[in-house]
Automatic annotation (TrEMBL):
Catalyzed reactions per annotation: (6R)-5,10-methenyltetrahydrofolate + H2O = (6R)-10-formyltetrahydrofolate + H(+); (6R)-5,10-methylene-5,6,7,8-tetrahydrofolate + NADP(+) = (6R)-5,10-methenyltetrahydrofolate + NADPH
Higher taxonomy: Archaea, Methanobacteriati, Methanobacteriota, Stenosarchaea group, Halobacteria
SUPFAM superfamilies: Aminoacid dehydrogenase-like, N-terminal domain, NAD(P)-binding Rossmann-fold domains
E.C. no: 1.5.1.5, 3.5.4.9
Alphabetical list of Gene3D superfamilies matching this protein: Leucine Dehydrogenase, chain A, domain 1 (3.40.50.10860), NAD(P)-binding Rossmann-like Domain (3.40.50.720)
Gene Ontology BP terms: L-histidine biosynthetic process; methionine biosynthetic process; purine nucleotide biosynthetic process; tetrahydrofolate interconversion
Ranges where the Tetrahydrofolate dehydrogenase/cyclohydrolase NAD(P)-binding domain occurs: 154-301
One protein family per Pfam: THF_DHG_CYH_C
Name of the protein described by the UniProt record: Bifunctional protein FolD
HAMAP family for the chain: THF_DHG_CYH (MF_01576)
Pathway entry: One-carbon metabolism; tetrahydrofolate interconversion
Domain of life of the source: Archaea
Amino acid sequence: MRFKYVAVEYFCMTQTQTRLIDGTEVAASIRSELISSVRRIDNTGTTPQLATVLMNDDPASQTYVSMKHDDCEEVGIATRDIEIDPEAPAAELFDTVDELNADPSVHGVLVQMPLPDHVDEREVLRRVDPKKDVDGFHPENVGRLVAGQARYKPCTPHGIQKLLTAANVETEGADVVVIGRSNIVGKPMANLLIQKTDGGNATVTVCHSRSDDLASKTRTADIVIAAAGVPEMIDGDMLSSGVVIIDVGINRVETETGSELVGDVAFESAAEKADAITPVPGGVGPMTRAMLLWNTVKAAAVATEVSIELP
Ligand code: GUN
């Protein structure tokens, strides 16, 4: 696979060159490489299929789910789109998950988070068949990841690992500061980075809302991965020159003319210090979606006993 980098020349006044790590482009390249794996599975008479279950009214969640369906369509993965009234009893969601678990034509099951307050999220995560858990959130899959026997790497951290590789950023021996300790990003990210594998072997510090003097930690980092969900909380003053920045945040903030999306990193001041940086949007987001396809193809390959090499 070839990856191209786009130099951001107008950030070059204080240093040689800051590279923009283009997640849109890397994700497109992964999608196009997945097409042949999907075809090989299709040739056995089984089309890989992802089922999504949405149980909330949040327009952002609806958009995310519909983008996941579009991505599936692009690579030839079939989809099933299930919506459950957010007021419905939790049992309706559990029954739906049970049916999808039992359906051999479905290879991946994704229950979009967040869920309504009356539904116990942890119970839902435990309910999804671990072999169909393409999010990688089931406790069995979390345990496997920690033990270095990952079945499905969670999509956002896996996508970040791919982005770092695509940008030729060496993690081995690097000091990485992960900001955020969520089950979706922070914790699995740290776990992936400390594995004895390519894209791992890093020294990882996990910071969070109770960490003291965050700047003293981020200034020591070769790589900063910001996943706190706080708009522009990391700026150039908190970073050392030559750092690589991965911005996981997608925050909608009000502006004089309406609203805009910003990351957890103040892009312009951080870019003045950075060797490489992801944009928001167009950095981590497309990679998360690409890795969901990856996990779905992997699930279908295992179910159909097709041996494939994923990109
Ligand atoms: N909500 C926000 N991110 C995610 C994700 O990665 N998976 C699921 N299932 N829900 C989410």
